[in-house]
Amino acid sequence: MKSLLATLALTTALTLPGLALAKPVTLSTTLNAYGGEGAYLAYYVTDASGAYVGSLWMAGGKSKYYEHLGDWYRATGGDTAQVNGITGASVGSGRKLDVTLDLADALFDAGYTLHIDAAVEDMRDSPNEIAVPLTTDGAGKAVQGRRYIASFQYDM
Amino acid sequence: MIRAFHRWPGLLALALVTLLALSGAALSVFPAAEQLAAPQASADLSVATLAGRVQAAYPGVEQIRRAPSGRVTAYWFDQGTPGAAVIDPATGQGVASADPGQVQRWLTGLHRSLFLGDGGRLAMAAGAAAMLVLSLSGVALVARRTGGLRHWFTRLRGPLAGRLHVEIARIAVAGLLLSSVTALWMAASTFGLLPETGGAPAFPAAVSGQTGIAPAQIVTLTQTPVSTLRELSFPYPGDATDAFTLKTDRGTGYLDQGTGALLAWADLTAGQRMSETIYMLHTGQGAALLGLMLGLMALGVPVMAGTGVALWLSARRGRPRIRDNQPASQAETILLVGSEAGSTWGFAATLHEALTRAGQTVHVGPMSDFAPETYGRARRILLFAATYGDGAAPASAAGFLDRLERATPLPEIPMAVLGFGDRSFPAYCAFANAVTSAACAKGWEALLPPDTVDRQSPQDFARWGRALGQRLGLPLELSHQPVAPRTQTLTLLSRRDYGAEVQAPTAILRFALPRQSLWQRLTGAGFARFSAGDLIGILPDDGAAPRLYSLASGRRDGFVEIVVRKHPGGLVSSRLTALHPGETITAFLRPNPGFRPGRGKAPLILIGAGTGIGPLAGFLRANRRRPVHLFFGMRHPDSDFLYHSEIADWQAQGRLTRLVTAVSRGVKPHYVQDALHAEAAQVTQLIREGARVMVCGGRDMAAGVTEALAEILAPSGLTPAMLKAGGRYVEDVY
Rounded distance, CA B352 to CA B358, Å? Predict the structure, then answer.
């Protein structure tokens, strides 16, 4: 189980009291059958003002393609240290990705938003494919992405 | 050594390299097709105008991209649904689907990774590396074969597979080098092995906060021609902190969505430019014509793979297994072989077997292993030396001369050199001669005078074997058949006799074409495909080496014809000249591609004496348009004027331009070389016009002809050797 704590500790943006309190959260993403190469997906969190807080997961291992995850790339400057240790394979057309992470309790119901940027080779980039507020109530509720993601939900 | 660097990557990566080349060739078509199909922007169209048109057609436009082919694609969002289309820049309207075709995607996946992810990518990168090694080692081999890079496009001789392999390679290698180097660069970049090339500029810390400027009003965009555009991204609707992102072939920048001001700009780094150039060179995207050329060159790879394997197999077949080979330290006779294609090993195996049967201990090895200090019990060293190209050491003799130079001569171990070569090449047995001179200069005692074997002649080899046997005090009868020939039965149709009155009984024998199986017809094996000048071999009853006769007919003539002179005591010639129509012999076919008139319309000068007229008559019978001058030497026109009546017919039909005869029996003996001298002016003129000289007959006659031509051509600055080097002077000598 990957720990967000270590990752977020790298960024100075999130230094909340009570961070030690964390619980496992599963991020479930199902892709449309868009019929292309594997999709790169960047999962990251912004705060209430829209500022980048930290990354949760990167689906896709080749950093030379990260610039196509436009918002994430802009927020991080393409810094691969942001996704060190939390990077997995890209997700094929029509496939499902489940990632379980220890997320700090403090991230919920505090104005934070979870974003997913998506990109597929030779197809349109889709930054901000998903943007859902992290709330206790929102858990388990599926949302649809703009182009590649058929459904996304987080479960606690 | 270099050959090993060519052979093993070639064999191991055969399938991979072929797959890469074929899929690459197929992919090379797409950039050109895209360029032809995509509506192109007019030269003066600005990005501002284009963006305005697209936004009018698709108000939810998010991004406009321009591919190197000139194809403009727009992506938009309309009531929660994303859309995309190829745009006609003149109208801003979509004209075609923006999704890449399934075929292209499938081919790309195959070409890049065999659909196997990173493992497949590594495999394909290994294939590209193999291609690079093959290209480089191939260049070295071709340079060695042709005598240097300066002679890159020199004429080639030899069997078809080898010629085809090199002919394709010397054109395709440029493309294959480019494709494999760029492929490896791209693979290294994919696996993050190259330094980061830098990216977009940092997003500006502050924007105006205003929104709503029309793209057509943005000054930067009005100054940016569409031809330089890579990508224009529109700000998110409702996000006042966002901005336009513009990427061009110069760099990347951000434009304020309220004021249109250029907020930040970063030029492309040198690394990025390099990456883009390499991508273009590999994919042909942005260089469609280059892509097509690379694809065409890649198509040569499957042919080279096939011919390469054929070459390898034939070299393997030509190198027999040697039984009871003794270690070098134990053997009395050290037999070292310098062979390129492997045929000389067969001779070594024959000698090894004969000597072993005679009770000798023999070691056979490559000349490159020469190490006289290890030959503890050796009494003699025998060297079988073929020649590569213009006198270079053949593959298995690499480094021999250096080793010989360093070695201390052992006076008690004499040395014998037997050269293997082809007299029709100017550098006949040049390497063997170099070995002989080097050994002589170092003071090695010669066991036998140096000798040569012309075109794998079993007779030459047997003669040398007898000389060796005599020297060793052993009866040594060497019967070597380079390739076990597959014989067929030929039935005599007719015979015409000449020359009895001048003590040269000669017969023109015409045999029926043997029946060919379907397989033989398909593969051109045996008598299914032959032309005048090829050889047929006839095995004597006593199992000695076969006798070879030049064919005076081609497959199209519908018969097999040879000219045979009866030699006193000659077993085969006696049997042949005693044949009656209806009787049969068994014979095999041996192609002789070095002795053909070739294509083209340049004049031919055919020179022959006695039975040497045979193949020349075959050339005349098949001639359509070429001017042909025949110099024919005979003893007496009333007795051995072979093909007399046909020659008259051929002259009447225009197949023969001019006949010059030389008669040797008479008051004043006259030979073909005399006839050449008499016609010196015309001969010189013809050769200046590019004429090809073909000589067939006895060895003395051929030497006389060469001498005469040397004298005739001297004033014009040409020599027979120059003509030979240019493939314009060929001999078939016996």
Answer: 10
CB atoms within 10 A of CB B10: 22
Sequence-distant (≥ 6) Cβ neighbours of residue B695 within 8 angstroms: B607, B608, B612, B701, B702, B705, B706, B729, B730, B731, B732, B733
Taking the Cβ of residue B185 and every Cβ of chain A, the question of whether any pair is shorter than 8 Å is answered with no
- Give the model's pLDDT for residue B207: 86
| B82 in contact with A, Cβ within 8 Å | yes
Q: Which residues of chain B have pLDDT under 70?
A: 1, 80, 144-147, 156-159, 197-200, 314-319, 341-342, 389-390, 424-426, 481-485, 518-525, 542-545
Q: Which fold has domain B488-590?
A: Elongation Factor Tu (Ef-tu); domain 3 (2.40.30)
Q: Which tens digit of pLDDT belongs to each residue from B41-77?
A: 888 899 999 999 999 999 989 899 999 889 999 988 8
Question: Any idea which of A17-21, A98-102, B103-107 has the lowest mean pLDDT?
Answer: A17-21
The model carries a pTM of 0.62
Give me B582's structure tokens: 């209806």
Q: Tell me the nearest-neighbour CA distance from A73 into chain B, angstroms.
A: 9
Query: Strand A87-88 to strand B262-267: parallel, antiparallel, or no bridges (unpaired)?
Result: unpaired
- The hierarchical CATH code for the domain B604-733 is 3.40.50.80
Instruction: Determine whether the interchain pair B200/A63 forms a contact, defined as Cβ–Cβ distance below 8 Å.
Output: no
Phi, psi dihedral angles at B337 (to 5 degrees): -115, 130
Contact B571, B542 (CB under 8 A): yes
Q: Which fold has domain B318-472?
A: Rossmann fold (3.40.50)
- Interchain contact B100–A (C-beta under 8 A): yes
List, for residues A43-98, the tens digit of each pLDDT value.
999 999 888 999 999 999 888 889 889 889 988 888 888 888 888 999 998 999 99
Between the alpha carbon of residue B188 and those of residues A65, A119, B130, B424, the distances in Å are: 14, 22, 15, 50
How are strands ordered across the β-sheet holding B547-550? B547-550, B535-538, B584-590, B488-498, B506-512, B559-565
Q: What is the SS3 string spanning B101-165?
A: CHHHHHHHHHHHHCCCHHHHHHHHHHHHHHHHHHHHHHHHHHHHHHCCHHHCCCCCCCCHHHHHH
The length of chain A in residues reads: 156
Does A122 sit within 8 Å of B105, measured CB to CB?
A: yes
Distance of CA B144 to the CA centre of its chain: 13
The domain ranges of chain B are 2-32+104-196+277-311, 40-89+199-268, 318-472, 488-590, 604-733
